[in-house]
Amino acid sequence: FSLEQRLRLALDRGELVLHYQPQAELSSGRIIGMEALIRWNAPGASGLVPPVEFIPVAEECGLIVPIGQWVLGEACRQNKAWYDLGQRWTVSVNVSAAQLMRSGFPEEVRAVLEQTGLPPELLILEITETAAVRDLEHTRRMLLDLAQLGVSISLDDFGTGYSSLGLIRQLPVKTIKIDRSFVQEMTDEGGNGAIAEALITLALSFGMGTVAEGVETEEQRERLARSRCAAIQGYLLSRPVPAQTITKKFAGGE
Ligand code: G
Ligand code: G
Ligand code: MN
Ligand code: NA
Question: Which residues belong to any copy of the EAL domain (predicted)?
């Protein structure tokens, strides 16, 4: 079987799973949200297959569309369960360019929110800067439709592409995610963190929020706090873990 065939079966057989990685507000340390990250519990594989090994294939063959629909539904269902436990976390879902290009996407999102009962303001869609600028006018209309639903948009891997800031400013983007390469530079020998600091300042001047990714050390956390970054995500708080682990560690439940 090809990887594509095995992936198609994986979706049907329920072998795909979501792990969640918490995000905390820097000023208070409070947990404010979770990013949903896909893994594949493939039969015969040792451990879970990471997304880098199958998402690019899924994007190439179009399977990313049904996979993305599953991810969206599952992440919203899980976040509604945490909501029912009293949490008011956002859930961030990664959206591929191929999903964003489909004109029916906002309607799919609306239907999932209705079916799961998750308040729209607790859903964040993460799109990459590269996907956003592929067809800017289409993206802009799409994001405006999604914003109308009350869902917010986050720009992932920000600063790693080549898009112009003038373009980004035309999009209804609420937060940018500072890529972990820039965070790690803050404490690398020879690195100075100037890019991370510049991106945070830029986001502030655009009225956008910031989430720093890949925060691994206390020193990085302190540097980010001094740079007025709003929130952090990374191994310092937790690795991506199964929903059950999040429930036990952060939601005070079973
Ligand atoms: O989970 P990991 O830490 O290995 O994530 C690696 C990459 O896979 C990230 O760039 C992330 O954006 C992407 N990814 C993880 N989950 C999903 C998903 O559900 N959909 C899409 N399109 N990409 C995902
Ligand atoms: O969607 P995105 O490309 O941002 O996916 C986040 C990726 O970064 C995932 O592969 C996740 O497992 C990984 N990651 C999350 N936190 C850390 C961290 O603190 N350090 C490193 N090196 N990777 C991280
Ligand atoms: Mn992401
Ligand atoms: Na990222």
Answer: 1-254
Q: Which atom of ligand 1 is nearest to the CA of 96?
A: 22
Residue 14 lies inside a defined structural domain of this protein: no
Q: What is the count of structural domains for the chain?
A: 1
Domain with 121 in it: 23-36+73-235
Best residue among 17, 21, 34 to mutate for probing ligand 2's pocket (most ligand atoms within 8 Å of CB) is 21
**Digitized pLDDT (tens) for each residue of the chain, 254 residues in all:** 899 999 999 999 999 999 999 999 999 999 999 999 999 999 989 999 999 999 999 999 999 999 999 999 999 999 999 999 999 999 999 999 999 999 999 999 999 999 999 999 999 999 998 888 888 899 999 999 999 999 999 999 888 877 777 778 889 999 999 999 999 999 888 778 899 999 999 999 999 999 999 999 999 999 999 999 999 999 999 999 999 999 999 997 65
Which one, of 8, 106, 22, 101, lies nearest residue 57 by Cα? 8
CATH code: domain of residue 90: 3.20.20.450
Residue 47 falls inside a structural domain: no
ipTM of the complex: 0.95
Measured from the alpha carbon of residue 96, the closest ligand is: 1
Reference 160, options 189, 131, 137; nearest CA is: 131
CB 210 within 8 A of CB 182: no
Ligand 4 center to 155 CA (angstroms)? 8
